[in-house]
Amino acid sequence: MKSLPSLHELISLKGKHALITGSAAGIGKAIAHRFAEAGATLSLVDIDGDNLTRTEHELAESGTDVRSHVVDLSDKSAIDRLWANLGGNEPDILVNNAGIYPFKHFLDMGEPLYRQVMKANQDSVYWMCQLMIGKRMQLGGVIINIGSTDGIQPFKEELSHYSMSKAGVIALTKTLAKEYANHGFRVNAIVPGAIRPPDAKATSKQILKGKFGVLKTGLEYMHRLPVGRLGRSDEVARMALVLASDLSGYVYGAVIPVDGGFLSG
Length: 265
Prior knowledge:
Order of helices and strands: HEHEHEHEHEHEHHHE
CATH class of the largest domain: Alpha Beta
Radius of gyration: 18 Å
CATH superfamily of the largest domain: NAD(P)-binding Rossmann-like Domain
Number of domains: 2
Number of strands: 7
Largest sheet: 7 strands, parallel
């Protein structure tokens, strides 16, 4: 057994550079903190400049080598500029986490909002993966795409556009895993279920303002959950760390639920 690498060696990201989108708050921020703890240098990407700066400062204070980039990922030209600015310092690990989920009834959906959701949630993942693979074809790397249980089993009403975009992310993950495994790319997806929002107070305020549909949906979802509670961002981050590290050296094209058992029902 002495020939086996130690657990510390397997989980370490020391010497690795990780780029994480949507990292100003929530799941993306939690992933950034876990990757930093494992020794990675970080490039943080988000459209929310204020919260992104706060996250960068938090990580820098802990000794992490971190840089932030304010980018609108729904804009293909902005994505191209991001990668151009990396200037030969492309990441070993790419986490596509950024996404939006505006509620809109299917029959009321207009083209502008539909296009915005698809660009932010699906197209951005496509272009980010294309640039990652294209620039690291001789080096390989790790790609982790964050999907959603809604992309497999839709639950909430007024999110057909969101479910469709996340189903596309899952399909892309499987396709890239098949096509580029032999080029050294390990591509997998995490599909979170209901994760406690970073600003739980905002949800409480919605309920107090009479938006009882939010409460009704929450209660129905909790009834469906075998574990009986919402997930935490860090619980998704822990799985991301497993997929980013050598702990998952033979894991390709996996779609891993972190959902409290939601998809088991």
